[in-house]
Design brief:
The complex is a heterodimer of chains A (428) and B (343). Chain A has two domains: 163 residues, Periplasmic binding protein-like II (D-Maltodextrin-Binding Protein, domain 2); 221 residues, D-Maltodextrin-Binding Protein, domain 2. In chain A, the strands form two sheets. In chain A, strands 1, 2, 3, 4, 5, 8, 9 and 10 form an eight-stranded mixed β-sheet that branches. Chain A has a two-stranded antiparallel sheet with strand order 6-7. In chain A, a hairpin with a 5-residue loop joins β6 and β7. In chain A, 50% of the residues lie in helices and 14% in strands. Chain B has two domains: 75 residues, no CATH class; 229 residues, MetI-like (MetI-like fold, Orthogonal Bundle). Chain B contains 15 helices and no strands. The radius of gyration of chain B is 27 Å and the shape is globular. Classes of the chains: A alpha/beta (428), B mainly alpha (343). Chains A and B meet through α3, α17 and α18 of A and α14 of B. Chain B: Its main location: membrane. Chain B: Keywords: Cell membrane, Membrane, Transmembrane, Transmembrane helix, Transport. Chain B: InterPro entries: ABC_transporter_permease, MetI-like, MetI-like_sf. Chain B: Belongs to the binding-protein-dependent transport system permease family.
């Protein structure tokens, strides 16, 4: 064996040992994520910096379809499998799988101070207060209108305190004058209906705090929606064309100026800013009023740490980094999301947009937060809220296409909620 | 070498030599099993060897068919939302009671679980028309493709091509054609006709669910029937022609009876596949409008996985009911086949 060969061999073994050592030292964290807009891209940039600053941790962002977060992740978690962190919207429904980060984060008081009101949305039923994650976005539901169409039709936009009936009539008038196929479109989602129903007087809970979905307020709103589908104000294609609680949005229709008014929420802002741009004036308007309130529904997505993680300390370190004011300011600013961080909400996020429509929409939704009904906040934090939303949308959909009468639909909503919650609460 | 000199021996072709060389590694591979098999035979006796050969298949069947079946039955008598069977409370036949309780079984609105019964009726309607049209169109296509027509190979490929496509792709293609601004509506509007919102009307939705399913799978059944047609001895047709038998009589008296075994296979396969329909229709119509095209497998999927409260017990009970229906269909098929064979 020549000297050179021996040196080369020794160098090779040493470098292999070093590489192997580094590989063994590196902890991989998996983060399940979904995208509404560009937030995956922004998060990846932030994680790249975190990975560079922390060579012992490698965070991998797994971007999944939203449906997988809703349907596959719960099964995975129930089976004791799953990622280390996940971005979820069913905050209460999955709370039993959340990790308590309190021992692993550097300053729990910072979290309580800045994320306090939202932490209870992630609270497992009957558990001690815990810190499980933070809101990647706070959302508020509300309508967007195509202001350009109103101007072209010469129809005045309903003003402050306008009701849903006012907006429906105005949208219908615009659509008739300009031959727009869909006067008004709502996301096919129980969550979207809940705010207007609360405005009409729906209480959502009984005196004991149990679910009470169907009451006069909800009936009033559901009847309006039913009537709008029958008279053509809303297109049956959206709510009538699929079964069960399947979500369908009308964002494409709105972006293509096929609808005058679109009831959705603040998470559409980045998408509309990018897709519509200045093609027409898309305008967010305050939540229309009913006799009881003028409210939308709060909501949002949270990044939560999961019990399935085998690396709680590394997860804590990552969450410390991601939840810092500086990182969140960048995240909310680039994604145009309403901040779920009280400090930033107060000081103001540096939103990176020069689009006046996006700025107006952000202002409209952000200023709607103080006016949100307490019932809406309670409903958002209620662990079985999706059971109520799903019963509402699926049965109302069946009534709209004529499979059930409205009264039958109301009875079935109550039955569905009772049956599903009873199933969930069965004792072992 | 003897065969070189034997004048009756056929000359050995090059291709045979190539195949012989290629077969050598395979032979060497199978030789590896010789010793363990001899050893097993010595221990178990020759009578047990068939079971040894059947074992891999039986193990596969046991793991992927029998075990899930037993688990399904187990889940169907439990409640709650826990994923692990041992942690779920036993509820007896409660899930079945919930599924099957009806004021009037012909009116789903009187049933406790109305969606299950609507799914049953929708599946019944779908199976009846889909299987009927599938067999009819496959037979017609096979009869045409069995004739000496120009471009026969091309047409056979064209009819078979949709079978190669993923059901999701098939459904998406047709969805784009049928949407409000799809190709079909654009064609209707260009002809001065009214736009039709196909997915809003229950009858149209069911029609397209059946149509797309027949279009996508017809090629496979056509191929089975074509094989059957080509196996019918031509001298029977020649004899019939010499006797001056009409074409209709030839079809009813020669073609159809001799094609019957293949027809039976087609009917049974189409029937079982139709009862299990899910992916194409789920992508095409989403089960809508309302629940007009929600079939039994979609009901099971929604109940078990898509709802927030994942009701595995109720979904399993519905699966067991579906399994019983399929089992009954198979028994009927076996009975019909046996009667035919004996007759």
């Amino acid at each position: 064996m020549t000297k050179q060969f021996r040196i080369a061999l020794a160098a090779g073994v040493a470098s292999a040992a070093l590489t192997a050592g580094a590989a063994f030292a590196e902890t991989e964290l998996r983060m399940a994520w979904y995208n509404d807009g560009i937030e995956g891209e922004v998060m990846q940039d932030i994680l790249d910096r975190f990975n560079a600053d922390n060579p012992d941790i490698n965070v991998v962002l797994d971007v999944l379809p939203y449906k997988a977060i809703l349907e596959s992740l719960p099964v995975q978690l129930a089976a004791g499998e799953g990622p280390d962190l996940a971005r979820v919207t069913d905050l209460g429904g999955l709370s039993q799988y959340y990790m308590d980060l309190t021992p692993y984060i550097s300053n729990p008081d910072y979290w309580r101070e800045n994320f306090g009101p939202f932490l209870k949305w992630m609270q497992p039923v009957g558990a001690e207060p815990q810190i499980s994650g933070f809101m990647t976005q706070l959302t508020v539901t509300g309508p967007y209108v195509n202001k350009t169409l109103f101007e072209q039709a010469g129809v005045a936009m309903p003003g402050e305190n306008a009701t849903w009936s006012d907006w429906a009539a105005a949208s219908r008038e615009v659509a008739e004058k300009l031959d727009i196929p869909i006067p008004m479109a709502w996301d096919r989602s129980g969550h979207r209906v809940a705010g207007p129903a609360i405005s009409m007087g729906a209480g959502m809970f009984d005196a004991d705090g149990g679910p009470a979905l169907v009451d006069d307020g909800l009936k009033a709103m559901a009847t309006m929606l039913y009537d709008w589908h029958q008279d053509g104000t809303m297109a049956k294609e959206l709510w009538g064309s699929v079964s069960g609680s399947q979500y369908l949005g009308a964002n494409e229709e709105f972006a293509n100026a096929q609808t005058v008014l679109y009831m959705s929420g603040s998470w559409q802002i980045p998408q509309f800013a990018e897709k519509i741009g200045d093609a027409f004036d898309w305008w967010a308007v305050p939540a229309p009023c009913g006799p009881a309130a003028c409210t939308g529904m709060p909501g949002g997505a949270a990044l939560v740490a999961l019990k399935t993680s085998e690396h709680p300390e590394e997860v804590g370190k990552l969450m410390d980094y991601l939840s810092s004011e500086e990182v969140l300011n960048e995240f909310y600013g680039r994604t145009l999301f309403i901040p779920g961080h009280l400090g930033l909400a107060k000081s103001g996020v540096d939103f990176q947009t020069e689009d006046p429509r996006a700025e107006h929409a952000l202002l409209t939704f952000a200023s709607a937060v103080p006016g949100i009904s307490p019932i809406a906040f309670d409903l958002q934090g209620y662990v079985h809220n999706r059971v109520m939303f799903n019963a509402l949308i699926s049965r109302l959909g069946e009534a709209i296409v004529g499979e059930l009468t409205l009264d039958q639909a109301f009875d079935r909503m109550t039955q569905d909620v009772e049956q599903q919650i009873a199933e969930k609460q069965r004792e072992n | 070498m003897a065969f070189d000199t034997d004048p009756r021996a056929e000359p050995v072709r090059l291709s045979d030599r190539v195949y012989a060389i290629l077969a050598l590694p395979a032979m060497a591979f199978f030789r590896l099993f010789e010793w363990p098999l001899r050893f097993l035979q010595r221990i178990l006796g020759i009578g047990a060897m068939p079971y040894v050969f059947l074992f891999p298949n039986l193990a596969f069947f046991g793991i992927f068919v029998i075990t899930p079946l037993i688990l399904s039955i187990g889940f169907s008598v439990t409640g709650g939302t826990n994923l692990f069977l041992q942690d779920r409370p036993y509820v007896g036949a409660e899930q079945y009671g919930y599924l099957l309780e009806c004021g009037n079984h012909l009116d789903p609105t009187t049933c406790r679980e109305d969606r299950f019964w609507r799914a049953i009726y929708n599946t019944g309607t779908f199976v009846f028309f889909q299987v009927g049209f599938m067999v009819l169109f496959s037979l017609i296509t096979a009869l045409i493709l069995n004739r000496e027509i120009r471009g026969r190979g091309f047409f056979r490929a064209v009819f078979f091509f949709p079978v190669l496509l993923s059901p999701v792709v098939v459904a998406l293609i047709w969805k784009w054609i049928l949407l409000r601004d799809g190709v079909l509506n654009a064609a209707l509007v260009s002809m001065g006709l009214e736009r039709i919102l196909f997915f809003v009307d229950p009858t149209w939705s069911m029609f397209w669910a059946i149509f797309v399913s027949v279009w996508a799978h017809m090629g496979f059944y056509t191929l089975i029937l074509l094989a059957g047609l080509q196996a019918i001895p031509p001298d029977l047709y020649e004899a019939a022609e010499m006797d001056g038998t009409s074409k209709e009589r030839v079809f009813w008296r020669i073609t159809l009876p001799l094609l019957w075994p293949n027809m039976l296979v087609v009917i049974v396969l189409a029937l079982i596949k139709a009862v299990q329909i899910f992916d194409e229709v789920f992508v095409l119509t989403g089960g809508g409008p309302g629940t007009a095209t929600q079939f039994i497998v979609q009901y099971i999927y929604t109940t078990g996985f898509a709802n927030q409260v994942q009701n595995f017990g109720l979904a399993s009970a519905a699966s067991v009911v579906l399994g019983v229906v399929l089992f009954a269909l198979t028994i009927v098929q076996l009975a019909v086949t046996r009667r035919k064979d004996e007759g």
